[in-house]
Design goal:
eight-stranded mixed beta sheet; alpha/beta; globular; Rossmann fold; 10 helices; binds NADP nicotinamide-adenine-dinucleotide phosphate
Length: about 270
């Protein structure tokens, strides 16, 4: 039974997953690139179900281990420490950010999660909790049976690992649909119909900046499992491949900068 979520990465997404997991009753071990001593403020905020660890301790402790890190860091992860682990890959390919670009990803020869799987030997990798922003990851979560509960896709090659990850995502507030294998996970990558926008609320034109921020932090219109299935089945492979920041709404950029500055002050 899943009891402990190991979270590698304590940034926007790592923190969001930690809060959701703890709210659902899981224990959390969280790590970053700078070491556990830099995580005391966050762990205090998260409470008694959270502790900080090294990356290796996080992997060892997690029944599920999340990769809440930029894809560009994949070669820095300890490749041999993941054997047999169920791994939830939240990373996305954003070429241009940090100048990370690969010809095989650009050409669609493999998906970003296949790249991650090749590196993390023996890991049972499942892509998921990757296709909505850190804000909407929390604002869209609803308990089972709630009329506003929305649906998220997962992809992976291991049936048992997919079931474990689906159970976790369902417990933190979402319906889950299976989008297929890691090779097929391009159907849920950046710039597809099920990526990002479908989970963000529409901000009407002409509202004040403060009102735009307030509205934007609410949930998007719920996606039913049937709609999610349709979006996945009808997906067209994006061209070019990979996300960009240019298409992000200004309100998103402003909230990102506010969060980054708040985090800097806390450290
Ligand atoms: N932001 C979003 O809304 C969003 C939504 C869905 C998915 N994603 C994906 O989730 C991933 C993380 O995004 P983010 O926005 O949370 O990034 P972020 O705020 O920049 O946080 C990245 C975290 O990764 C840690 N990290 C980097 N290299 C590491 C390493 N070698 N070992 C351990 N930890 C390492 C960093 O450690 P330090 O704190 O020590 O620097 C930091 O805590 C990305 O792949 C992104 O595409 C993001």
């Amino acid at each position: 039974m899943t009891q402990t979520i190991g979270i590698i990465g304590s940034g926007l997404v790592g923190k969001a997953v930690a809060r959701l997991a703890i709210a659902a009753g899981y224990n959390v071990v969280i790590s970053n690139s700078r070491g556990p001593s830099t995580l005391s403020t966050l762990v205090n905020e998260l409470g008694s179900k959270a502790r900080a660890g090294t990356v290796e301790e996080t992997i060892a402790a997690g029944d599920i281990v999340t990769l809440s890190v930029p894809l560009a860091t994949f070669e820095k992860l300890p490749a041999n420490a993941f054997a047999g682990k169920t791994v939830l890959d939240q990373s996305n390919y954003y070429p241009g950010m940090g100048e990370f670009r690969r010809a095989d990803l650009d050409a669609g020869e493999l998906t970003s999660s296949e790249l991650m799987q090749r590196h993390l030997k023996g890991a049972k990798l499942v892509k998921g909790l990757h296709n909505l922003s850190w804000i909407h990851m929390e604002s869209n979560a609803r308990p089972a049976g709630h009329a506003d509960r929305t649906t998220l896709p997962i992809a992976g090659d291991e049936g048992a690992a997919k079931a474990t990850v689906a159970g976790f995502i369902e417990a933190i507030g979402y319906n889950v649909v299976d989008a297929g294998s890691l090779a097929e996970s391009w159907r849920i990558e950046p710039n597809t119909a099920i990526y990002f926008w479908r989970y963000a609320p529409k901000v009407p034109d002409g509202v004040s900046h403060e009102e735009a921020k307030r509205i934007y932090q609410q949930r998007g219109e719920p996606v039913s499992p049937q709609e999610a299935r349709k979006l996945i089945d009808e997906a067209v492979r994006p061209s070019p491949i990979g996300g960009t920041l240019e298409g992000m709404p200004q309100v998103h950029v402003d909230l990102f900068l506010e969060q980054a500055s708040a985090d800097t002050i806390k450290q």
